[in-house]
C-alpha cells in the first residue's frame, strides 16, 4: 500500500480565489452558535478570522505589569481594558493586550468600545512582533479616530 507523505502543491488558480470575509455580526453569530468558543484564541481583522499566539508566562507578566501601572496612573480618568475586543468597523474586531478607553458610566457593558473610545493601544508582542507591527497595526490604525490613538509594541 502506498502512502503519500507530502501534501500536493497548490495550483496557482487556488491561490487566486478571493477570501470569504466575515462581518463582526457573522463573527459573533459563530460564537453564539458554538462554532467559535472562548477557548479559540482568534480575532477578526479585515473580515478574516486570525489565530492569535498563545499567552506565555513572559507575555502575561508584562501585561500584568502594564495593567497595574496604567490602573494606578489613570485612576478613574480612563478605563484599562485587558485582552478584550474593540469594534473598529464592520469587519475588524481586534483584541489588543491593553487598551486605555475613555471613561464611560456602563464600563462598555452595552457594547464593545469603538474607535472613538480608544486613547492608547498596547500590544505586548513576545512572539508576534512582526505580525502585530506589519499586519495588525496597519489594518487597525486607519480606522476612524483610532488612527490618532497611541500604539506601543513591547517586544
UniProtKB/TrEMBL annotation:
Residues passing through the membrane, by range: none
Alphabetical list of Pfam families matching this protein: Uma2
Annotated Putative restriction endonuclease domain residues: 25-141
InterPro entries: Nuclease_put_TT1808, Restrct_endonuc-II-like, Uma2
GO biological process: DNA repair
Name of protein: Putative restriction endonuclease domain-containing protein
Organism: Geodia barretti
Amino acid at each position: 500500500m502506498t502512502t503519500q507523505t507530502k501534501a500536493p502543491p497548490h495550483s496557482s488558480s487556488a491561490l487566486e480565489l478571493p477570501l470569504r470575509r466575515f462581518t463582526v455580526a457573522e463573527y459573533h453569530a459563530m460564537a453564539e452558535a458554538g462554532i467559535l468558543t472562548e477557548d479559540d484564541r482568534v480575532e477578526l481583522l479585515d473580515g478574516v478570522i486570525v489565530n492569535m499566539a498563545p499567552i506565555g508566562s513572559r507575555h502575561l507578566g508584562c501585561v500584568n505589569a502594564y495593567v497595574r501601572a496604567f490602573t494606578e496612573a489613570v485612576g478613574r480618568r480612563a478605563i484599562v481594558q485587558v485582552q478584550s475586543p474593540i469594534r473598529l468597523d464592520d469587519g475588524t474586531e481586534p483584541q489588543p493586550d491593553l487598551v486605555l478607553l475613555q471613561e464611560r458610566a456602563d464600563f462598555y457593558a452595552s457594547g464593545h468600545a469603538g474607535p472613538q473610545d480608544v486613547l492608547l493601544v498596547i500590544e505586548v508582542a513576545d512572539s508576534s512582533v512582526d505580525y502585530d507591527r506589519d499586519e495588525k497595526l496597519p489594518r487597525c490604525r486607519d480606522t476612524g479616530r483610532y488612527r490618532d490613538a497611541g500604539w506601543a509594541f513591547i517586544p
